[in-house]
Amino acid sequence: MLYNDYLKTLNKCPFYDEIHFANQLVADNKTSALIISLAPYHKHHLLIIPKRHLERIVEISDEEMSDIIELQRIGIKILYRLGYSNMSVLVREGENIGKSVKHLHYHIIPNVMIGAENITGGDERSISTEEEILEFIEDMREAMEDLSD
Hints:
The protein is of the alpha+beta class and 149 residues long. The protein has helices at 3-8, 18-24, 62-81, 130-147, and strands at 25-28, 32-36, 46-50, 87-91, 106-110.
């Protein structure tokens, strides 16, 4: 299913869909969660989602910011363990810049140059299949086990 078609089927924030969220969860802490992207720009595209519904960066509490930074570090370490040496961390603010979900979230994307002409967007993105999600989660679990060694 194409990402734009998926968005049309939603009647609530996709980050509140516990079924998908549970399948996508990589790590979490008190205020935020690190999940795999359901409509990735790259196979190992991660998202950091504040658990409290926020729309703007200025709404983030100090505790939430600390938790987000902790999950960024974990996500980046996981991607290093998977063999990546280049990644981008992206958060979008505002309505007209390609942001499709109003719930504030951070992207951690390996091997993708950020810029309007460099990321495939809009109709080109597809929703991951259950098999792709399971494969991705297994990759994340293996990388996380390596982190504790």
